[in-house]
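Review form for a predicted model. The reviewer records the input and the model, then writes brief findings.
Reviewer: anonymous (R2)
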Amino acid sequence: MTEKPPMPRNIRRDSPVLEDLPNVGRSVAADLRRIGVRVPRDLVGRDPYALYDALERATGTRHDPCVLDTFIAAVRYVEGAPARPWWKYTAQRKRTLAARKPPNPA
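Model under review:
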């Protein structure tokens, strides 16, 4: 059995500051902290849609869908995707949410 080499250090995950992530400024970082995300590494393996739902529950208000796009961008980035503007995830969000809607009863 061959031993795998150690994974390279990923500064995206190891950064101690959420604002170091592309698309994440003070406001989005505050939203993430409100739902328990303290450092970028906390986003690894998380469902951005569940994070968005948790934010809406925590604040008791509906948030602009671009916040969800930003959460998608941040999660994908810390998981190794290239940095992309949050609006590049809008089409993906729309497709995903449309697929989750229950069919209309006839």
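Findings: The chain has five helices and no strands.
Further findings: The chain has one domain: 13-99.
Recommendation: see findings above.
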